[in-house]
Amino acid sequence: xxxxxxxxxxxxxxxxxxxxxxxxxxxxxxxxxxxxxxxxxxxxxxxxxxxxxxxxxxxxxxxxxxxxxxxxxxxxxxxxxxxxxxxxxxxxxxxxxxxxxxxxxxxxxxxxxxxxxxxxxxxxxxxxxxxxxxxxxxxxxxxxxxxxxxxx
Length: 152
Known about the structure:
By secondary structure, the protein is mainly β. It has a single domain, classed as PCu(A)C copper chaperone (Immunoglobulin-like, Sandwich). The chain is 13% helix and 47% strand. The chain contains 1 helix and 10 strands; from the N terminus they run αββββββββββ. Strands 1, 2, 3, 4, 5, 6, 7, 8, 9 and 10 form a 10-stranded mixed beta sheet that branches. The radius of gyration is 20 Å and the shape is globular. The N and C termini lie far apart (47 Å). Keywords: Signal. This is Copper chaperone PCu(A)C.
């Protein structure tokens, strides 16, 4: 009886692990989570969008984002050079197979230009991530007040 329980327990554990590994639908595609947008302090200025990307089976490139509440979206990278912060547009963000890339304040992020002035902190907006060799990912991004911290 102990032997059967041992085998049964191992089989159950393997089945549970397979189910958890399949949380992306078993597709092996990249995933996105924790999307948020820090609203601009001054009306008419751009907002900044952040998200965590988790690589799938193959490396992909995030080519752009679409945000219906913004007229234009650009990918950017912040850098520090001699104590001075600067920001430059980039044409893609590499997402390694099985790796994690975080778009976050002080690093890579998306700038949202001409944002809908009706958006308010505490709300959400839709965001679509477009990749070179993977299906687009649609998700909701939490809106955060100017200077506000990443939502929990």
